[in-house]
Every structure is written in C-alpha cells, then in structure tokens.
Design goal:
Number of domains: 3
Keywords: Nucleus, tRNA processing
CATH topology of the largest domain: Rossmann fold
Number of helices: 15
Structural class: alpha+beta
Pfam family, one: Gcd10p
Strand content: 15-25%
Family: Belongs to the TRM6/GCD10 family.
CATH class of the largest domain: Alpha Beta
Largest sheet: 9 strands, mixed
Main location: nucleus
CATH architecture of the largest domain: 3-Layer(aba) Sandwich
CATH superfamily of the largest domain: Vaccinia Virus protein VP39
GO cellular component, one term: tRNA (m1A) methyltransferase complex
Length: about 525
C-alpha cells in the first residue's frame, strides 16, 4: 500500500493580525551579530569552569572522551539497533513503538508476529512483509523485504459507479469465512484475491474505485510494516496522532517551523524551556550534531525525566551529554546561592572512602552547576525556544539579558491569546524587531498518476508560534561589548592567579624541579599576567 500511495506535505503559514499597538522602531537599532561574541563567552565560561574544577580532584593524565568516529555514527543512524526503541509504520498508517530484544518475538496484533533477530541490523525505511506464522497463536513468521511497485498511469474511462450498491450483500465472504482463512495460514495477498473474486460489484467499479478498494483491503489484511528512524520528527508524528495533548499539539510541521524560526544550527548556543517531554530539546540536539550548547531551564532541582528525549535512539550519547546543560529556575537569579559543599581533601576531616566518594560526587555536581550559571550570566546566546505552559512574557523578561544581538526567540503554544498578548507588549519595546504570531498549516496530498489531490481529512491545528529578533541600539551594544571584554579579562586573570597559587604551593612542598626555583617576583614577571594586566 505504501508503494501505491505516497503523500507530501504542503506547508503554509497564515499570519494572524496583531492588535493595534505602536510598532518597534528600528531607527538607531543595530543588530549585533552573536558570532563575534562566541569566543569571548566561551572563554568566560571556560575560566569559570576551570576555577571551579580546581577545587576538586582531577586526574591530569586522564584525556577527555573522544567523539564517536563518523562511521560509527553513520551505522548507528542507518541500521536498526538492538535493545533500543524504534517506530514501525503499519499498513493502517498508524505508528507503533517497539524495542527489539534479541531472541524474542515482536507481536503486531492482527498484522502478525516476527522474530526480532530477523530485523536487527537491517536498514531503516524499507517495507517488510511477514510471511507465514499465526498471529492468534503468537507464532512468528518470516520477514521478506518488499520491493517498491512501479506506479502505472490509469487510462481514462467513461465508467461510473452508479450501479454499485454497498448494502453488505455484494460480498459473499463473511467475517467468519475470512477468520477461518487467516487461521488456516492464508497470506494477505491471497486473501485479498479471494475477497475480490467474491465481490460481485468489483467489476462494475471504475479503475479509480477499484484501486481505492484494493488499497483499503491491503491496509486491512496485508502483514506489512516499515521501520522508521526514531528521530524527533517521527516521534512527534507518533505522539500527535496518539496523545496530542502530551506534546501541547505540536505537529511535526510546527516543530520544523520552530527550528527554522530559531535558526538552530550546529555550533549554536540556545536557551530552551521544554514542556513537551523533551521533544523540543531532542529536535535541537539533532540539529546541533554534538556541537554547541543547549541550556535547558526547568522547574525541578534534579534533571527532568524526559521520556520522549530518551526515546530518540537516533541520537548518539555524545550528542546529548556534551552540549546539554540543565538549570532550575531559582539558579537563573544572580542572588541565589546553592549550598556550599566542603572540599574533598580537607585534612581536618576524617572520612571513609565511601563518604569521600559521595562527597566527591556532590562536589562535581556543585562545580558543574556553578560553571553552567556562569555561562548563563555571561550571555550572548544565539536564541531562545520555548514550548511550555509558562507565561511567555515573564520567561522572556527573565532570560532576555542572556541573549546576544540578532538572537531569535520562538515560543509555541496551542492557544492564540497568550502569544497575542506577548506580541502586543514586545512591539512597544525597541529591543524587539519583527514580532509576529503565525499559525503553521499543513495538508497531506495523495500523489498518484491521474489521482493527485489533497486528502479530505486533516488535523485542525498544530498550535501557534511567536517569533522575534533581539537587537541593541548603538550605545547599548558598545557598552555591553566593553563590559563583556572586562569580564573576560577579569576571569582570565583570576584563572592565572589560581594557577600561579597552585604552582607556588607545589614548590613549597618540594614538588618542583630543583633547577627551576620560584622567586617571589616571578609572578610579577610572568608574561601572561603582564599581558592580561595590560
């Protein structure tokens, strides 16, 4: 059926009228590009992380974990893995998530069952047919890859369907007969042939009606399925058709609009507020490809349990752990301070190895939190994306100081009213340009020779999207740049002083070479310190 019917999406965006308000004036507003500040922001964050890391034990000879080789990532994305969730598209066009465990049988209900070992390692995107087996007895059948059929042009005809009367008496085979044929092991193709032969009105149909009739029977009786990439788009479509309220009615095309409006790209730095089970974060991490930063803000002290994010098995582990950092809302305030964790190597305290390991773990979490807060306050993020039930304007006022010039903001909501109110408020402020609210609209098309037309049934809405661009005027941009340069210089100077202090302590303990004595004035003659001080 999938080979005979294909569809593509036609997307459009209907701009909603904004309330009467004074539009933001762009005169004198200079969008400062964020790329020029990336190195400075990264240096400040690295300095804060190094200063925090100097208080805990770090093995100097322990190298950082290397990124996975390209061939490993390529194989991970294109072959069906074991013990990881994937998504199967059934003949009924519905999606079913399964986990392939070696040595076990996967049941698809009335569509049959197959052995997981037969599918592990096979490529995604191909259609497979279950041959043999008995779904009622959970007896697994064999898998056979189905080749795509060539679509043929249908000749025009003057036949009509005026003599067709689907009163239930045109089909000679009853439900009991069809069930007996299935229990006897009759294949789906043979069962469809029997159904066509026993239907007395089939020959009176037009060729278009005959093809549609066959397609409906294939969707009902054929034991076909197609394994799909468990990426963000596939999982978004699955949850949208099963429980759209879980993802706040975020349709796949609306998710694509959010990523496009936010200019999400590899190497970018983004602040995210995710209230859709990790779907938005997972889509952004896919775009980053392991390069960049995603700072997730949530309302829990511990990292949130995003079930959709963990289901995106197409994401390598390094693509999630390296870019992703998590903060709770209290940590976004400068006045907030976490509980101080004592140093691990305190000579005045006696600790067991178990207590020392526990304290060292807590110290590592504390240092990571402090480094993440320093990165947030350093600012110059490339964008902000939000899909949550929080009030949009309150969230924007909290994080707007961490955004760079020309940073994009994107807010998705299933309701129009909160976005329109936020739009009216942002248009009064000079630092926001091109504030608009749109409703993404998508419609599927059947594309077949002589039968191309839009589908009659489609979803009503995929929500609404607010987007805007953050800018600075010339005076503010110059002032922020000067302040940021001073902050970076102070952070680097503090890092150098901490390193020199550690070196002086090591020399006093006799851990330096005898031919390299450390004098009191060496720190002042250090060319690095002199350069930073200048």
């Amino acid at each position: 059926m999938d080979a005979q019917k294909t569809a593509h999406s036609s997307e459009d965006a209907r701009s909603l009228p904004a309330p009467d308000s004074s539009s933001a004036s762009s005169e004198g507003a200079t969008p400062a590009g964020p790329n020029s500040h990336h190195a400075a922001a990264a240096a400040a964050a690295a300095a804060a992380a190094a200063a925090a890391a100097s208080t805990r034990e770090v093995k100097a000879d322990e190298p950082a974990p290397p990124p996975p080789p390209p061939e490993t990532v390529h194989a991970h994305l294109n072959s069906i893995p074991a013990n990881l969730p994937i998504v199967l598209r059934l003949p009924s066009t519905k999606h079913k998530p399964v986990t392939l465990v070696p040595g076990r049988t996967v049941s698809l209900g009335k569509f049959g069952a197959f052995r997981a070992d037969d599918l592990i390692g096979m490529p995604f995107g191909h259609t497979y047919e279950i041959v043999g087996g008995n779904p009622h007895k959970n007896k697994a059948g064999d898998l056979r890859m189905v080749a795509n059929k060539t679509l043929a042009d249908i000749e025009e005809t003057d036949a009509t369907n005026e003599y067709i009367n689907d009163d239930g008496e045109s089909q000679k085979l009853t439900y009991v007969d069809i069930k007996q044929l299935k229990d006897a092991g009759l294949g789906g193709r043979e069962l469809i042939e029997r159904t066509l032969q026993s239907n007395k009105n089939f020959e009176q149909r037009t060729v278009y009606s005959q093809d549609k009739f066959i397609s409906r029977k294939e969707a009902k009786h054929m034991k076909l399925f197609t394994p799909l990439h468990p990426d963000a788009a596939t999982l978004c479509a699955f949850h949208f058709e099963r429980a759209p309220e879980k993802i706040r009615f975020l349709r796949p095309d609306a998710l694509a609009h959010c990523l496009a409006y936010g200019s999400v790209r590899p190497g970018g730095r983004y602040i995210v507020v995710d209230g859709v089970g990790g779907l938005l974060v997972g889509a952004i991490l896919e775009r980053l490809g392991g390069q960049g930063r995603v700072l997730l803000i949530n309302d829990a002290d511990s990292p949130p349990a995003f079930d959709i994010l963990t289901s995106i098995s197409s994401l390598p582990k390094s693509w999630v752990e390296q870019p992703l950092r998590v903060l709770h809302w209290a940590a976004t305030e400068r006045a907030w301070q976490p509980s101080i964790i004592p140093p691990v190597d305190d000579p005045k305290r006696f600790m067991l190895d178990r207590d020392r390991a526990r304290l060292q773990k807590r110290r590592g979490v504390y240092d990571t939190l402090q480094a993440t807060r320093a990165e947030l306050f350093a600012g110059f993020f490339d964008g902000f994306l939000m899909a949550s039930n929080f009030e949009p304007l309150a969230v924007l006022e909290r994080i707007q100081h961490s955004l760079a010039g020309s940073a994009k903001i994107v807010v998705h909501s299933p309701y129009q009213q909160p976005l329109v109110e936020t739009q009216a408020e942002l248009r009064k402020r000079d630092e926001w340009l091109h504030v608009e609210v749109v409703e993404p609209w998508s419609r599927r098309y059947q594309v077949l020779p002589g039968r191309t037309h839009p589908e009659m049934n489609t979803s009503a809405t995929g929500g609404y999207i607010l987007s805007s661009i953050k800018v600075f005027d010339a005076d503010t941009a110059e002032r922020l740049a000067a302040e940021h340069r001073q902050e970076v210089a102070d952070a680097v100077l503090a890092q150098v002083r901490a390193a020199n202090a550690m070196g002086t302590g090591a020399a006093a303990a006799g851990n330096v070479r005898k031919d390299a004595p450390v004098d009191e004035g060496d720190g002042e003659r250090d060319p690095k310190r002199a350069k930073v001080a200048e």
